[in-house]
Amino acid sequence: NIPKLLIDIFIVLLYLISHTLVKYIQVTTLHVAINSSDTSMLIIVITTNFVEIKGSVFKKSNSDLLYKLTCSDIVERFQFVLFLGLILWDNFLMESSRNDRIQKIVWWVTCVMISETFVDWIKHSFITKLNDLSPNTYTKFRISLCESLARVRQNKDPYLYSYADVGVTYLGFPAIPLACLTIHMLKPIHMLKPLLESVDITITFIWMITIIWISLIFVKQVFSLLITGLASMRVSKI
User: Fold this and answer.
1) pLDDT for 41-65, tens place per residue?
2) 96 Cβ neighbours under 8 A, 6+ residues apart
3) How many Å apart are CA 21 and CA 215, to the nearest integer?
4) 208 Cβ partners below 8 Å, 6+ apart?
């Protein structure tokens, strides 16, 4: 079984590197567009939104396809927020990006989020109208996701081992590639550069990684309790 295990590890690593590279290219393209002329950013916003509307509005759809589209939009919205936050953070770390550039980035971050929200609203309005789908369909989608979380909490789903599996299985959320991208973009060592010059770098690095790890575990547990608690409350009200 060892050769099979090594092959599986190699395939997983290859996928992880490839997927993370794709996400890095996306955030780099958005980064370059925001830091370049306003015309380039405006073209990207208009083009992506037009392609999104054209590719989904005028197609025949049903509740199952709408569910997949809704899950895809949820992941896309989260990725946009993460990408824009990483871009804002990266520019904030640059010594030359303190005033005008930061204001410009904040302006474009706001414009992109508003345009994405508006386009998604129009897209789903047209889809439900043209396909005679009730708006209550989205309530059923929410209940379905809440029931999935409740099954994990009660250990009734053999295919879901943790709360994170719900996002990966039902939403298609690429958690590990986005985590790798975030770790690469945050550059925590750069923030502690003055501190690392005055103390032992090994001890500081170990303490920094330990604190970050414990903090992330704590935040994960808090959010898991909040989300599963809300999901169980909604399921119990049905």
Assistant:
1) 777 777 877 777 777 777 777 888 8
2) none
3) 27
4) 188, 192
